Amino acid sequence: MKKYIRWIRQNINAIYRVLLFIFALGVLSIIYPNIGNFRYEYQKGKPWMHETLIAPFDFAIHKTEAELNENKDSLLANYYPYYQYKPEVLEEIKNQFNSNFEKKWNTYIKTENFKKLNYKKNKVAIEKKRLLLYFHDIISGIYEIGIIEDSNTKNQLPEKINRSSNNVSEKVETKSLYTSKIAYEYISQSIKNDFKNQSYHIFFQNLNLDTYLTPNLLYNEDMSEKVKNSMLSNISLTKGLVKSGTRIALIGDIIDDDTFRILESLKREYESILGSSQSHYLIMGGQSLLILACLVLLFLYLRNFRTQILEDNKKLLFILLLIILFVGLSSLLIKFPKFNIYIIPFVLIPIVLRTLLDSRSALFIFIISLLLCGFLAPNSFEFLFLQLSAGIMSIYSLPQLERRGQLVITAIITFFTYSIVYFAFAITQEGSIQEIEWKNFLWFAINGLLLTFSYSLIYIFEKLFGFISDVTLIELSNQNHPVLRQLIQHSPGTFQHSLTVANLAEAAINEIGGNPLLVRTGALYHDIGKMKNPIYFIENQMSNRNPHDNLEFDKSAQIITDHVKYGVKIAKKHKLPQQIIDFIQTHHGAGRVQYFYTSFKNKYPDKEIDEEKFTYPGPDPFSKETAVLMMADSVEAASRSLKEKTPEAIENLVINLINKQIAENRFEMADISFKNIHQVKHIFTQMLINIYHARIEYPEEIKRD
Questions:
Q1: Whose CA is closest to 97, among 217, 215, 208, 184?
Q2: Which of 2, 125, 356, 584 could anchor a disulfide with 567, C-beta 3.0 to 4.6 Å?
Q3: Strands of the 168-173 sheet, one edge to the other
Q4: What InterPro entries does the record point to (predicted)?
Q5: How many structural domains compose the chain?
Q6: What counts of helices (H) and strands (E) characterise the chain?
Q7: What contacts 376, CB < 8 A, 6 or more positions away?
Q8: Is the distance from CB of 566 to CB of 461 less than 8 angstroms?
Q9: Considering the domain boundaries, does residue 332 fall inside one?
Q10: What pLDDT does residue 277 have?
Q11: Whose CA is closest to 481, among 501, 457, 464, 498?
Q12: How far apart are CA 200 and CA 203, in angstroms?
């Protein structure tokens, strides 16, 4: 039992990676819809490339979406919405009007305009009754015809409606009905025609007649939708029948509209039958094998070409979750056919992975994702061609993400790539511009718009999975960063040393391949630990006095080696990424502080040396970038101590220092070749010669009397 536990502990990371792939396989198998796949691939306008196809069973020919829409439009042309007539509204309005009329009349008869009429008391009562009856008659006439509610029809009434009253419906033309606005205009015009006395007009205005024009024909949404859905449900989804044994296509036949429709109908019936038969578990097994094949391809790529990604559990988890996410979105759209699969921003995969990993990995993982999603897409070849074209263009258009504006340009390029390739497919298949589904261009535009959000996603992924992007590196390399500002203030000599090391390392990485922005940023931060005791480092000593002269050699060595430990502590305090901390930890590796080690050995030849006190904590460099930084750091520091900075002396210094590091096996864990190291030596030599080149001595001006 202990043996198995020990084996598990020793291989815990490998077991975890296997479990991640098993998890991905299980989730993807569940996500996949349990339907069979039609065995034939075909495209409209292209020849049939398979054997002669005979109908294996009777099946109906499904109508196209355009035909169904035409049927719907034809059917709905005879559809009229239902409005409920409310007779009780009139009585409520009359009661409100009578109350208001009484108040307004009593106020009106006291005005000077009315007194000028010189009506006797009985005449006033008669006039009041006449006006009240007049308004009752005109309002009753309007409400008997009906005031229609128009708020539910966006102010565009249909030509006819079904008017329901007492469970009886009748069709009525809307032009014979009133709206609140038309009713008010009708009353106003009637008053002008029937009453010539202007004093009455003022009274009518005070009555606020528009407040008594409440609709009594109300839209009956439940009834309208029920009748509408009932009518639509009667539309037949099919037309015609293909009998079993009927020849559908011969090899070489061009697939025209009719044949394409028959093939689509056969495909739908075939997949439906497979999904509902006893072959259900076989289909699931087949799908799982296809998914497994794609995951094995991904594993082999990572094992052979990107071992560092495979061994990084966070990065591997991120890649698998990204694939699961897009396969899940593709599967989800099958359940929501209103949305097209082209709305999914698949190009986010190469954009994000190119920014966080590298172009090669981004393209390969993108292809794996497309293969998995291609099984779910309606036209697999068209889907793969479109997405692959757009993905490759996005990688080319975004070599380095340094500004948000680059994403906008990439989104525009992606939109045009989708549009051009789709247009080429459409005219090839349809042979006519009129038959192109222009709606797809809207999906492409939405797709491009979604790509602009990748900037925020990249930031989130960085924080969750420990990545570092070029955008973050640019921010970190800004000299206004708090850590660099402190370094400039407390250790100006160290900062100048770091700048020179950054220039050397960046030039070397540009030549041998790697991430120049990463190595430059790492170089700027590699010595931040010297801020703890800056005066103990020679580049910060402004006088001939050296504080190490008053210390024992082992104490001095301890101060020197501790700058790595303090640097890591400062970096973690300011939440610098682990990739930058790697440069701090590895720029001396596990090497010795040779000066103090040799001095101690010479002074105390018989004393036993505690090697740990003279050794940096390490580890040694484990990447090309950290290895180059170690070389640049040692070469730059040593070059300052040269008495004669001749080209020969500089070249010998560079060669000897780097050869010594090789002899000490400092680069064993780094993926750097001897050829790369030779190139680095040459670059360092040339750059240092240029830095220390001789300058012309300016002549003094001769003073003449």
A1: 208
A2: 584
A3: 168-173, 160-165, 82-85, 217-219
A4: HD/PDEase_dom, HD_domain, HDIG_dom, Metal-dep_PHydrolase_7TM_extra, Metal-dep_PHydrolase_7TM_intra, PgpH_phosphodiesterase
A5: 3
A6: 29, 8
A7: 32, 33, 327, 330, 331, 334, 341
A8: no
A9: yes
A10: 52
A11: 498
A12: 5
| 507: in domain | yes
**In whole angstroms, what is the distance from residue 29 CA to residue 294 CA?**
12
Same domain flag for 370 and 486: no
Q: Which of 109, 126, 117, 132 is nearest to 198 (CA)?
A: 117
* Same domain membership, residue 405 and residue 541: no
Task: Give a yes or no: residue 266 inside a domain.
Answer: no
Q: How confident is the model at residue 497 (pLDDT cuts 50, 70, 90)?
A: very high
Confidence of residue 153 (pLDDT cuts 50, 70, 90): very low
* Closest alpha carbon to 258 in 513, 45, 19, 525: 45
In 3D, which of 620, 625, 628, 560 has the Cα closest to residue 586?
A: 620
Burial of 183 (0-12, 13-18, 19+ CB in 10 A): buried
Measuring CA to CA, how many Å separate 227 from each of 13, 79, 364, 389, 564?
63, 9, 54, 47, 79
Residue 110 has pLDDT above 80, yes or no: no
60: enclosing H helix or E strand? strand 59-62
In a shared domain, residues 299 and 227: no
For residue 604, tell me if it sits in a domain.
yes
Task: Yes or no: say if 691 and 653 are a contact pair by the CB < 8 Å rule.
Answer: no
Same structural domain, 204 and 84 = yes
CA–CA dist 139, 135 (Å, integer)? 6
CA atoms within 13 A on the CB side of 145: 17
Amino acid identity, position 52: T
Chain segment 583-625, per-residue pLDDT in tens = 999 999 999 888 888 888 888 887 878 888 889 998 999 999 9
> For residue 289, what are the CA distances in angstroms to 1, 38, 329, 430, 703?
34, 17, 21, 36, 94
pLDDT of residue 172: 87
CA dihedral 106, 107, 109, 112 (to 10 degrees): 170
The H or E element that residue 62 is part of is strand 59-62
pLDDT, tens only, 316-369: 999 999 999 999 999 888 777 677 888 999 999 999 999 898 899 999 999 999
Around Cβ 529, how many Cβ atoms within 10 Å? Answer: 23
Measured between its terminal Cα atoms, the distance across the chain in Å is: 104
Counting Cβ atoms within 10 Å, is residue 349 exposed (0-12), middle (13-18) or buried (19+)? Answer: buried
Mapped onto helix, strand or coil, the DSSP state of residue 84 is strand
CA 252 to the chain's CA centroid? 43
Q: Which of 60-69, 88-97, 277-286, 336-345 has the lowest mean pLDDT?
A: 277-286
- Dihedral angle over CA of 100, 102, 108, 110, nearest 10: -140
How far is C-alpha 221 from the geometric centre of its chain's CA atoms?
39
Round to whole Å and give the CA distance between 536 and 548: 7
Same-domain pairing of 453 and 488: no
Considering the chain, what percentage of its residues have pLDDT values greater than 90?
Answer: 36
